[in-house]
Amino acid sequence: MQKDINSFCESVGQPPDRFRTIQIHPTKKCNLTCLHCYSSSAPGYHDVLDLANLKSFLAYAFDNGFNNISVSGGEPFLYKDLEELLQFSRSIGYQNTLASNGMLLRSERAKRILDFVDLIAISVDGPQPLHDKIRNQAGAFDKMCQGLEVLKDLDKPFGIIHTLTPESWTSLIWLGEFAASNGAKLLQLHPLEMYGRALDTLTSEAIDDDLAHKMFILGHYLVSKYSDQLVVQLDMLHRDYLLAHPQIVSGFERSCGQSGKLADLLDTIVIEESGTILPVSYGFNPRYSIGNISNFSMSAFEDFERQSIPDIKDIFKNTLSRIAEYGTRDIVNWNELLIEESHRSMEVGIEI
Ligand code: SF4
User: Fold this and answer.
1) Which residue lies with its CA nearest to atom 6 of ligand 1?
2) Atom of ligand 1 at shortest range from CA of 74
3) Which ligand 1 atom lies nearest to the CA of residue 99?
4) Which of 60, 95, 219, 256 lies 20 to 30 Å (CA to CA) from residue 124?
5) Which of 141, 344, 185, 323 is nearest to 249 (CA)?
6) What is the pTM for the complete model shown?
């Protein structure tokens, strides 16, 4: 979510609330097959985004108010054109951020690429036995730690991203210490969501309300404990707080339409590995797609604003109404509910 990168940027001396992000998933190829992978990435994938199409779209989107790219995947360091992509995006004014499993950072190529990276987030699932289990590979923790050493040697600002599971929440105190002692600027705690491979491998690990409360309390303990060392970002909100401050998560609530550009309304758009451009988040209903980078037109954003923004505003509004009606859930993963609502609106035939 946009506020994550804002917190991260603030922690490394960048002004907050200035980023409008394009999340790029250039490939589903990965050196791992993590149990919780929301994109079901794996070593066997070979399709990648076409660099020329990507460059054209990025130039167009920059002129329309987007100014930050966040490259993930799959594992971004397996994207053959990553160096050229980052060189290009920086040359036209984008801030470059990456999310990586941190295992492929020791090569000379990786170090060259890191030269064009402003911020990098590394996934850590817990202490070594748990990390290796979730990453589905013995030795993954040790290789990730070697990657952190590379980042420290290069003095590259980095954060830690952790997926909260019923098995991992008891390691939160360890995780805070791990992040702080390694010099991370950000610790992002994101609850497990039932998408991709998690649907096959972790269905018994769904987070119930009782567990969400425990994570929420521990997460806030870490916020306070490390407030002078790093930003701890918890991707769960208390329902009452969210209802009182919907502008935290909704560009529609925040926007005064200053520039009349799409980036005023949507903090984030996503380019999937197929080239499809989605609003809001990975997993959002493709019915609301902005187009595809292989054939987008120079009026793509204007067409999308006219045709789909009213529907998406309704999805935001409906999500808030559902949260207000929740009798039993106090702790809310806003992003997950929003994606759910984008699909639900079609299932129940809501007039949108
Ligand atoms: S979670 Fe990340 S590192 Fe793991 S398989 Fe998916 S893309 Fe690869």
Assistant:
1) 37
2) 7
3) 2
4) 95
5) 323
6) 0.90
**What is the number of the ligand 1 atom nearest to the C-alpha of 36?**
1
CATH 3.20.20.70 matches 2-344:
yes
What is the rounded distance in angstroms from the CA atom of residue 189 to the CA atom of residue 187? 6
Exposure string for 219-241, b = 16+ CB within 10 A, e = fewer:
beebbeebeebbbbbbbbbeeee
With the most atoms of ligand 1 within 8 angstroms of its CB, the residue from 28, 29, 32, 134 to mutate is: 32
The predicted pLDDT at position 6 comes to: 52
Query: Is 267's C-beta closer than 6 angstroms to any atom of ligand 1?
Result: no
Phi-psi region of 138 (alpha: psi -120 to 50; beta: other; left: phi over 0): beta
Q: What is the mean pLDDT of residues 251-261?
A: 69
CA distances to 49, 246, 261, 263, 312 from 256, rounded to whole Å, are 34, 15, 11, 12, 17
Please state the domain extents for the chain.
Answer: 2-344
285 ligand 1 Cβ < 6 A = no
Q: Which residue has the higher pLDDT, 204 or 115?
A: 115
Percent of the chain with pLDDT over 90: 69
